[in-house]
Amino acid sequence: MSTENHFYNHKKQDSAWQKKWQADDTYKTADKSTKKKMYVLDMFPYPSGAGLHVGHPRGYIASDVYARMKRMQGYNVLHPMGFDSFGLPAEQYAITHGVHPAKTTKTNIDTYEKQLRSIGLSFDWSRKINTTDPEYYKWTQWIFLKLYDSWYDPKKNKARPIKELISILSKDKKWKTYSKTEKEEILMTYRLAYQGYSEVNWCPGLGTVLANDEIVDGKSERGGFPVEKKTMRQWFMRITAYADRLLSGLETLNWPEQIKTIQKNWIGKSEGYEVSFKIVGAIIPDATVTVYTTRLDTLNGVTFLALSKNHILAGAYTEQTKLWLDDNTGDKKGILVDGIHGIHPDTKEKIPVYVTNYVLSTYGTGAVMGVPDMDERDYAFAEKFKIPVKKVLFENADIIAKRIKAKKASSYKIRDAVFARQRYWGEPIPLKHNTDGTISPLKASELPLTLPNVKSYEPTGTGESPLASIKSWVKEGFETNTMPGWASSSWYYLRYMDPKNSSALASSAAIKNWKQVDVYVGGAEHATGHLLYARFWNKFLYDIGITVTDEPFKTLRNQGMILGPDNRKMSKSWGNVINPDECISTYGVDAFRLYEMFIGPFDSSMPWSTESIIGTRRFVDRVWRLHEKVLAQGNVKSSVQVESMLHKTIKKVSDDIETFNFNTAVSSHMILLNTIEEGVISRKDFESFIILVAPFTISLSEEIWKNLGNKTSIHLAPWPKYNPKKIVEESITIGIQVNGKLRGEISITGNESETEVIAKSLEIVKNHIEGMSVKKTIYVKGKIVSIVVGF
RNA sequence: GGGCAAGUGGCGGAAUUGGUAUACGCGCUAGUCUUAGGAACUAGUUCUUCACGGAUUGAGGGUUCGAGUCCCUCCUUGCCCACCA
Hints:
The chain is of the alpha/beta class. It has 27 helices and 29 strands. Residues 1-5 have low confidence and may be disordered. The structure holds one RNA strand.
């Protein structure tokens, strides 16, 4: 026997078939189809200069296996890929190397696309999108303008056009007396995209403002630069308007519970009361401090009021004092507000008022009633400032509320999202600042507002974007901030539905057809960023009649991280990065895909093993040899065990792919192969087996399929059907327990009566029950015999 | 400090959801074959014991005829949020 035929030539097959699939448009998605639709989406990547490591494709291969099975099960599958390419890294590279970000972005996209193609992912590449393409970001800008032109009506619980708000406001006679600027200022407090002056996370190192989720341990996520508080003019997204819907919508989603919990906590809804305390001695007449509390039942124990430094009654402070109060990470700090005191609404006692660092200005009312007897923080503060601690006499909250006229109120942790970066490589915000201070949005027909070229990509350091240094840009009055990274990724799933449309972000027919993403695959790290923002935008687009479902992603699956062989996160600095190109070249794309799926449960993290991948390569070779055997053999029937195992495997693999249990699906393939090698398989059953592995082993299956005489692609062949009648068990062996310990086993067909089985079992384990009496017998059909004995 | 996961051989892990724990794969051991090598094939491989047997799913307790799976206490690891009133 020569050995040559006995190894599968992956290099030849991989490249040949990939060319063929591309030439044949095998994976092209039909815009119109009578088949049921299935939208399977990966979180699109940000193409970095480093290219892919073996951890990245795990999610892509999983979604690909799923999409392939669905295609073979007769669905019209939308499975696209694109690139999220605005953002800091390309810009930082431009600063250090002087290369235009557009150029870097193009190079990186090309590298990524080449790598993704080599993994044989069944994307419809004709739908590829690139967020830095003006034809794409035109629609990101268009959505921004819609948000700018909308307000949230809490009564109708949806977004409405701003002109409808104006007609409501006009009913008030006062409205006409306001100047144009005053009217604009009022409207700005309603717009869903609005400009505000707010304390933000300013990062001098990056020269930009950051969102909360871009800060890790008080430092910027990218670069690790320090972050400080600064009050600046910003664009915001009024995501807080959607807080309740973002919360209730979670219940309708088939998402991992962990992600739902994270979003729930992030939104942070709590129910309580607002209580007003009269203030005596303030300059403002009839001054009150309203606090938010979830524990109105402890009102009796209030001995002080604590205000945040931004509270209207907090007073003016020197820069130094402000800085001192800014630090709210360590000890409790506070200043007694001289000359004023509060009045307890129930007891009418005088209580002192403090400004403290531990009360957040952005939560509740920015003021807290201090109950040192109940609350640890209040106690720590009271102890430090020698404030008396009063023993709480609990009383029903509703009764107190009625008596002191406290209102029920809800509070949320979620904050409006900063929607501006003082950087260059992002979508321009399509607005003009007029000389009178008002703002004019661009018309839809004026979009896209394209990003101009600049000489220097360096941030100005004054908190302005490099765009501020372009005279023509500033002269036109264009906004110099750009959009943050999450803008374009908040709606891209809609663009794939109709990626080349120049008159709408996608045609309403396409959106009606594809509706929403059926299965969305990506990392869990986007729980409070992308996944929340995209839900918010989708809900807004639903309100204005663009999308047809309230939620964008029906089912979500998170992939676990692949660590280096040393169990550490893959990184250049550890030198533990495994490149997929090398794996594919050594073992072939099929062994690589199998191993990525076989390595362990899809959603858990695990180390890459450079030796274990040989196991899936052996599987590939064994299937190849089996196919040679099948081609050589005559017309044979499958052995009973093989046929039975085949049908068990059809059920198991179909179920496992459906539920993303890819590791056990591959394991079932291996068990089936082991069974086939010990028996005989018919040509027809072998075809079923090859189809069953085809979503994993794409080239191998295709080549074998051709050799079996098929003219069309296996990847469009119908998925095998499971026939329960084919599963025959001649006999099964079950255990016999005596007092809970396994003492023997018995072979049964399953047709015996309980008495029969028990009688035989007692005979088998008679040594273990000698001299004792049988107290109880249990027979769980087909599972176990349990005998209880005693003296 | 709060919340959420998870702990099973030398390694990655499986277990029909309360029914014979360690499937599948890697590695390892022995053998077969071969024109060097990486290969392939056959047998074995949780631990302990020459063996009969015994023990075993992070530790301890409980429920049950029966627990990796359910309940309680504790330990360890990972992730998320951290003065949210």
